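Internal tracking record. Fields below are filled automatically when a chain is submitted to the structure queue. Please do not edit lines marked as system-generated. If the sequence contains nonstandard residues, flag them in the REMARKS field before resubmitting.
Queue: standard
Priority: normal
Entity type: single polypeptide chain
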Amino acid sequence: MKCDIYQKDNIYHVEMDLPGFSKDEIKIECNKGNLVVTAEKMKKEDQQDEEKKYIRRERSYGKYSRSFYLGDIDEDKIEAEYNDGTLHVSIPKIDEDQNKKQITIK
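SYSTEM-GENERATED OUTPUT FOLLOWS
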């Protein structure tokens, strides 16, 4: 799962290649600044599989996962879209001034 991560206009952008997967086979989770992308391809059991005599079988089925720590992000405003085998996730950053806390000295 190759990807590019870049920042533009206070938004992180993750572009990830997931060819051969459908939108339903991809799951995106976010927890405390960690973004986790999981894609799982299930093996399809055909009744005709018993009749097939494979010479070579290279297409694999399995579960793939990538995770990234992005820090202070607005988890409620994350958006994702999947087109032509590429997943694009937009993750807005929280304004650092909003996250600052003034500590008074006693």
